[in-house]
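User:
Note these tokens:
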Amino acid sequence: MHISEGALSASVLVGGAAITFAGTAIGLKKLDYDRIPRVSVLTATFFVASLIHVPVGISSAHLILNGLIGLLLGWAAFPAILVALFLQAVLFQFGGLTTLGVNTATMAGPAVLCYYLFGAGARKTKSPLPAVFGFLCGAAAVLFSGLLVGTALILTNRALEKPAFTVVAVHLPIMAVEGILTAVIVSFLRAVRPEIWGVPYEKPQLQN
């Protein structure tokens, strides 16, 4: 979903930059020192996952994993995704520096939104509810990101309506893939690292 350089109007670029600045400031303020390693790991995960992409007009289709990042980081998803996108723009020319604010906002914004929509459900103790909410979070985050990218294109120029709808359409199968991936990862982490979700670890009782 990287939007290329020169595709957006100045007003959209400024609006995206303002949202990213505010979101990153909140994320850094809420970021505890103990969570920095987790943020670093998820930043690297996002960086690698979105390297494999398919060009779609002035944007691209690829795995995002912003739903999972939102579940695990909350507002810290903004600085995590911002750093990953900056490195991709500098090292591989994916997206661009002028569109960095918009690209971050379209991916980190849905991550934070899905944290509030599905985070509590993913932390429920009753199985299989965490996996169900994980799927919904992964799929919805991709959908919201696609809609935001489409909105940014349409606000720039009404003639970009067709590319905007194309971006959303090509991400429909990615929604399903990311939903399944997020559900699997949530279930796995619930089993091996329940403290991540605020669930105390219970040692198995040995039977005599």
Q: What stands out?
A: Residues 200-206 have pLDDT under 50 and may be disordered. The domain at 10-197 is CATH 1.10.1760.20 (Arp2/3 complex 21 kDa subunit ARPC3). The chain has one domain: 10-197. Residues 2 and 103 are 6 Å apart (CA to CA).
